[in-house]
Amino acid sequence: LQKVYEASSRVQRLEAAFVQTKELKAFAQPVTSRGTLIYERDGAVVWRYESPDRMEFVMEGTRARMRYPDLGEEQEFDLAADERVRPLVESMTVWLGGTPEKVRESYEVALDPDREQTLVLSPRNELIRGFIGRMVLSYGDDGLVTGLRIEEPDGDATTYQFTNNQVQRTP
Predict the structure, then answer these.
(1) Bridge partners of residue 111, in order along the sequence
(2) What tens digit of pLDDT does each residue of 94-121 get?
(3) Residue 57 and residue 85 in contact, taking contact as beta carbons nearer than 8 Å
(4) DSSP 122-163
């Protein structure tokens, strides 16, 4: 965890392509989406989905926005005002730029014994455990996340594969 933090703590901005695969019990086949993740050290996170449907989720500080450009719809959320939503959203981004202490505060952390450079994070917060059973993070030699699998308590899972990392680091 410390090695990953040391590599990621110098990242000021990260942009990566992603492929998201959702395995849902309700569907016979996985559902695949593609897009771009943008992370900025100042707290901005953007998930921009390009296909099959365009959607953008933007989180800046205590504000979040979901935008559906093809439908002309947009929703805004005040994360500071909603005690149920804030811990969930924060838990989904702590792996991007959280300190080892912050990660350990939110998750039980273990190394995956079957895969090198893979961490397993199990939420400590009971509310979050209702949505996330565990997260499995894979890292490259550069310490950046290459894969993320979110396993839900009901058996559904979402997997992200990150490629084409464009990174701006502090000197």
Answers:
(1) 119
(2) 777 677 788 888 899 998 888 888 999 9
(3) no
(4) EE-SHHHHTT-SEEEEEE-TTS-EEEEEEE-TTS-EEEEEEE
What are the tokens at 39? 């992370």
Average pLDDT estimate for 68-87 = 84
Cα 15 → chain centroid: 13
List all residues 6 or more positions away from 54 whose beta carbon is below 8 Å from its beta carbon: 68, 69, 70
| Assigned token pair, 23 | 């395995």
Contact 144, 14 (CB under 8 A): yes
Q: Which amino acid is at 171?
A: P
The token pair that represents 104 in the structure block: 């350990």
Q: Using the 8-state DSSP alphabet, how is residue 21 labeled?
A: E
